[in-house]
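Methods: example folding runs. The two proteins below were folded one after another, and each record is reproduced exactly as written to the output file, sequence line first and structure-token line second.
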Amino acid sequence: MLKNLPKEIVKYLVEELPPFTGLLLVKTDENGIVRGYYGQYLDYFTEEPKVGNSIHDYSPALFSMIPPLVSPMVLNNIKSTTQNYADIHIIESSVNDYWVIFMDQTNEVEKIRDILQQINSKKLKLESGKIKPEKSLFNVFEHLQLKVLGEKIGMIESPIPLWFKSLNPTHKEGDSIVYTETFPYLEVFEYEAIEFWGWQNNGKLKSGIWTETTSDGREITLNAYAIYYNDEKYLLVQEVDEGLDGTQMALQMARDQKLAYEKLEKAERKLKTLLEYKDKFVSIVSHDLRSPVAAVLGIAELLLNDKEEIEKLSDFNKDMLVSIKEEMLRLLDYNDKLYHWSNLELGNFEIVRGKSSLLKLIEAASRTADQKMKAKNISFSTNLKDKILTVNVDTTLFLQVVNNLMANAIKFTPENGNISIDVKQEKNKLEIAVVDSGVGMTEEISKNIFKGFARSSTMGTGGEKGTGLGLGIVKKIIDAHGFEIRVESEPGKGSSFIIVIDD
């Protein structure tokens, strides 16, 4: 077999690997496509590797590992079939030419059974009082044994090793710990461990090595084993003498990146599910709740407009009917704004621009606000007289912007105040300002005014309640048009919301 292999592969087999029989060598291209193999494949694969198929079809652990980050790259104790484990070496021999070497490690993995059997035996004797605690086998291994109770939670089932005391001096045997908090590195290894435990086959899975800093500033090197034995899950963490060399660091970085990518994919899938739930929720709020609210509002208005029936009611009941009407109107307004806000947040809208008369937009907004302005005796004016002046906007959405700014101005303007829409036209710029004589605001409030729900708890000068969504919707629509909006305000001196449109 050796005479058929490239010289660098033969050199690696002779100099780097221990004397060994039963090797399987698989040749692939840079995409992991099988080009040929040498050796007995049945010890490692359930079927013969075929030329043209991907190597990870036969060994899923090699998914995205070819080409390797470094060459050679070694993966330790990888489960190759339902029964066997293997060390996998990935070597680049030339451009577009990679060799994957499988070494059977099943016997090595099986040794962990003897260790655990000894541990369990010693534990039974310890509990029965036949041996003294200081002679327990746990002290010989000097490892931290964690029995896995649930996701990220383990119970310490061994005396505390000295190295662990230097990291966590307060922990003792029998304590439960969140092991990914105690050893943050294990958050990465945990993904491999969970998959390994899911196979429910007695054996172990070894992590890479990592470093921790003790309370006295000393660095110690650790590794971990995920163990499945007789339907129980364990984590063994132990101190090792060796440090991280360049190859191990590169390998660990590659593994961390791969697992971080998998974690990101899971988070993305979860986010998509949450967004689907959000869409369903918005649909329920905006459609299914609108009909019963509108029905209650209709009944309240019907009773209030029936002079004969209204006279039969006490003043208290009349006030209750007025309150019901006002609350139902507010709920419908909240319903509409929540629907628009959610669609804007999710990008479920399209800007359809067209030439619109700015004067007609202002007149439409003043008509919409007319009843509320009359209720507070607020005067309205505009300095725009040019009916020819147009703006290139989505008429429906831009009118919503002006309506929301007008509603906000009315809310925070006291009785007998005034509101105006002032238009300033310069050479290459158009400014549209909604100006009020209201209560104004501090600089701190101004900075956050366009965030959704920013002023949800603020009452208007007439006791008006708001959703806090109106100005957030304004900002989203203005941004979608590519315009700018700013606010100028001082407490007690009113506010100006200025839309800037560049030609």
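Second run, written to the same file directly after the first:
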Amino acid sequence: MNDMLTQRKKRNLWLGLALLGSLSLTWVPGSAAAQQPAAGEKRQAEAAVSPESQKQPAAGQKAGSQEKTGTEGDSATQKRTMPSNVPVKTEPIRKVREVNFVIQHGQLVSEAIGDVDGDGVEEVVDLMGDPVVDKSSYMGNMYVIVRDLDSTKVKYYIRPQDLGGYNAYLTLSDVTGTGWPDVIIAAPSGGPGETVEYRILDFSGTKPEEVFTAADNRGVTMVGTYLPDYKVRLSFPNLTQDVELDLASQKDAYRSLNVYGADGSLKSSGLRPLLQNISQLSTLDVDGDGVDELVTLQKVMGVDSDQPLGTVRTVWGYRAGVWQPWNVSFRAELYAKPAYENTDKITGTGGYEITDLKVGTDTGEVEYPHFQKLDGKIAWRINNKIETFVRDRLREAVFGTRLNLTYEVKYTGRKYASVMLLGLLSDRDRSQVISRSFNFNLTTGEEIPLKELVRPWYGFWNMVKKEGQAKGIAITEDTLTGYYYDGSVLGLLDGNRKELDIPEEKVLPFLAKNRIGEEFLTSQSNEGSVKKLGKISENKEKNGN
């Protein structure tokens, strides 16, 4: 009887030890329950836990060793029941092949070049994306990669949150104060509001950081309220006083939407003026500290989506990782249209486009052309030259001066494009005329010297001398400061604001031998008429007339 009790106690002891192991409880050496069992008793306890272990070992197998049977879960159970002081054999770490991250997916949307990470070497910054539908200019799933020049190996990669838009493009400017240019993405969203999604990326740290996000695109806030007698009140938290506007010039539109009654009384329409998200973002060193601030524009909309009530201009500074509104101003736009206004988009031969960009200044109106749908590097070179000129003029517009700058697209050929930037910088005592011609080789992105466009060179200047004498305007090779060609005339400019226009019939023989390979038209605007006249001449020759 005593032997049966002893065997039962031993069996209960080993069952308890097995249970402790399966629950991963701590083994306490030295206790009565933790004494090392005899070999036969240990096998008996293991048999009680796992019936599989009752199988006899195969011939030649050492006593006490276990055959590898069962599932992965069985193996895991066996490992958990193993005491913690039993050494475990670990697999050696295998060396893996280094993988170079290269461009594999997406289309190139825009490109910029600059030292964005501060290592002293310029990088290529590529904005990639996928068309939402086939042959659409709206790109979604956008991401940015940074790589060394002439290399496909990627140094940095970042996917901005919720970014998509039409004809997106990149610019570079230090707006965070790191000393290195940040990457600014502009992605027009389309629609009547003409809003643009902006993101700003900083690559100067250990990893890329999105410092201007989708939430920042909301800009400042506003509360708008319609008042009786065709008036509206706009309240901005960042302005010390409210703005009140008269809506009488559009009373019919407001009546039709039941905002007002026939006598100007206010109805319960539930409509309110709306402040849209940012529609324009530009960079400008407002305080002269060497770091650019952001200048944003937001439209205040009433009932007519084509005619905003006004525009909110905000200057933002980046401090302690937060964008802070330094200056907020409102300008009414009821509802005067400028006398001269560029079209939204001009399409050149070959499919590239020239769009209109504006800078939100409080000292005048500034707009300039932006080339897109070209090779990324070529578009970057062209736009960088234009933007550098505009930024230099903005720096000259100090306190007390007024800058107005616009542009004209003169020629948009397959390999040659000509644009003119025109403006006036004025203060109380003087005015300075701004005139700068840009003539680009669209296969390289570089400006074209006139010597590459007209040949033979000396024969051309002999012709110019005769034309100048006939018109009383003397322009020589030494006094020439710029030129343009618009399909009708070749305009030669000098430093004394003189212009000599050479008609197309005089200049085309010299343009025909240009070195860039452009086939010049006699007149772009009358291309169809020129072809029609040519066919009429051919028919007359065939008929003997």
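Comment on the second run: The first strand starts at residue 107 and ends at 114.
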